[in-house]
């Protein structure tokens, strides 16, 4: 990889910042409408320990669906390969909150990164943990080395009050027998999980275990096996951006995951993890400037896996 990665990122940041984007905040979660739409930050954590950030990279945001990668990581620890009987590994080609394919595939979500799939993962965690809300938080605090990391009650409550679509998804899957616990309990945990708050520096550091064969960078502690890390990275590449996953692979060329809070995390195995945040979303629910920045970085460097 190019050694002047800091220059590449700084140049991309300065190039993308003034671009007029026509994206919109995710106002369907009312609390997210209060975020300053002009925030923009990026942070890269390299496997060799170097790191670099610019812009609003130290300001916390709602990581939303980025957390689905972490809940999947915890769930594979419990179920191992059996997890794939509850959930598939195929791109959906549909919006993140779509109900469409659930009937066709008898309640088996296409992948763990669309809402239906992440809701089933929450159900699995509730089955295997005494207190999923607390134990998931502990898991993320440990892998991120952020002892005061927390859920945002304001964001979670806001989504709990308006998340009719997720309520429909969870009940529909329950009717097809792929939710084993009380749907209200599963949804409660799902909304809490999505409300986790981190900044770009913390996201890029937290996800570095996936670029490091399943081990934490800070102390080498094993979080998941290298084979599990390989699979999760493959899923990020094929399913991390909903019906824009192909385009992200095409334009950026890295495994990644987005959230409607405007965050994106992407990584290059054995090399680096990068997190970017800009709250305005394109029509597919992915950060407009976040995608643009990553595309610019990988187009003008050798920082893509391809
Ligand atoms: N909490 C959001 C939802 O369930 C997460 C969606 C996302 O980030 N794409 O709608």
UniProtKB/TrEMBL annotation:
Catalytic activity as recorded in UniProt: L-glutamine + H2O = L-glutamate + NH4(+)
* SUPFAM superfamilies with a match to the protein in the record: beta-lactamase/transpeptidase-like
Q: Which GO terms describe its biological process?
A: glutamate biosynthetic process; L-glutamine catabolic process
EC number(s) stated in the UniProt entry for this protein:
3.5.1.2
Q: Which Pfam families match?
A: Glutaminase
Q: Which family does it belong to?
A: Belongs to the glutaminase family.
Q: How does it assemble?
A: Homotetramer.
Specify the protein name: Glutaminase
Q: Gene encoding it?
A: glsA
């Amino acid at each position: 990889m190019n050694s002047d990665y800091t220059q590449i990122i700084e140049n991309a940041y300065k190039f993308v910042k003034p671009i007029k984007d026509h994206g919109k905040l995710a106002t369907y979660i009312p609390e997210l409408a209060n975020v300053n739409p002009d925030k923009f930050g990026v942070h890269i954590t390299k496997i060799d320990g170097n790191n670099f950030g610019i812009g609003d990279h130290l300001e916390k945001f709602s990581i939303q669906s980025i957390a689905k990668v972490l809940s999947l990581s915890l769930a594979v620890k419990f179920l191992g390969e059996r997890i794939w009987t509850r959930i598939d590994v195929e791109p959906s080609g549909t919006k993140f909150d779509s109900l469409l394919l659930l009937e066709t595939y008898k309640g088996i979500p296409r992948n763990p990164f669309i809402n239906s799939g992440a809701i089933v993962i929450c159900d699995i965690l509730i089955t295997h943990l005494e207190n999923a809300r607390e134990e998931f938080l502990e898991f993320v605090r440990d892998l991120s080395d952020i002892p005061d990391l927390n859920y945002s009650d304001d964001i979670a409550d806001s989504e709990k009050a308006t998340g009719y679509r997720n309520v429909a998804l969870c009940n529909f899957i329950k009717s097809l027998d792929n939710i084993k616990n009380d749907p209200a309990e599963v949804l409660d945990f799902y909304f809490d999980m999505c409300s986790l708050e981190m900044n770009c520096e913390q996201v890029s550091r937290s996800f570095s275990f996936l670029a490091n064969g399943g081990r934490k960078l800070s102390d080498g502690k094993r979080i998941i096996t290298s084979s599990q890390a390989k699979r999760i990275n493959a899923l990020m590449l094929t399913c991390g951006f909903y019906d824009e996953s192909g385009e992200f692979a095409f334009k950026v060329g890295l495994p990644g995951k987005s959230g409607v809070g405007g965050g994106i995390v992407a990584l290059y195995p054995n090399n680096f993890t990068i997190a970017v945040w800009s709250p305005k979303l394109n029509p597919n629910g992915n950060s407009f400037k976040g995608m643009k920045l990553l595309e610019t970085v990988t187009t003008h460097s050798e920082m893509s896996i391809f």
